[in-house]
Amino acid sequence: MLLAVLLTTGQGWAAPTQTTLRVFCSGGMYPVIESLKSDYLRQTGTQIELEAAPSMGKTPQAIPERLARQDNADVLVMVDYAIKPLENERLVRAQSHKVLAHSFIAMAVKKGVTPPDISNVQKFKQVLTESDSIAISDSASGRYIKSEMLAKLGLGGKTAKKVVVIPATPVGKVVADGKAAIGFQQNSELKAVKGITIVGLIPQSVQQDTLYGAVVTQSSSQPQKAGEFIHYLNSDKAREMMTEKGLTPF
């Protein structure tokens, strides 16, 4: 009887509205966030709507391009040095910016191919010289390889001509499909791809440590909830997941 009265008077219990945070995430951290979504929902009742978005580049999916056309998110998880230009343009809330993890570049070959020896610089240089095709990303690791690493190794135009930049697609997939003999990307990104063998991290003397960070966007309508999610990304659970996926927590 009471239930009937409540229903007819419009005073019944309303189901709580579930919060959803839209998160743009670049490839290096994507496997981490994807694996943490259900835990975060269980802990907080907040749904994470995760979308893959490169930290840089001119593809439509890239974070700067999306923000420029007002395709906005609540949280950005991306290469850390790419956050500063967004702070300068006041597209993000600088006070919310947190560094999350270190990431290192690894090399992969197609599954079934004998992994070459890249245990020292000379052997690594030989592999690059002898490879027919070299796939790199259009983001942080690829830019470093093309603009700095080849020069550090003393490799000239002949090797550079074999380098193919892969936009908005995992490099590992290109290698798995046999479209490149070897591929380079952040270790965590390669670990998420089937059909490849990760040879290992590139030699330390030519390695690059890329930091990943997170920040709340200026356009977020729920900045407090967004900030709480970034705080969660510094939790023990999140740090364990980063380690599992091939990153080093900051």
Automatic annotation (TrEMBL):
Organism: Pantoea osteomyelitidis
Lineage start: Bacteria, Pseudomonadati, Pseudomonadota, Gammaproteobacteria, Enterobacterales
Name of the protein: Substrate-binding domain-containing protein
InterPro entries referenced in this protein's UniProt entry, alphabetically: ModA/WtpA
Short name of any one Pfam family annotated for the protein: SBP_bac_11
Highest rank taxon of the organism: Bacteria
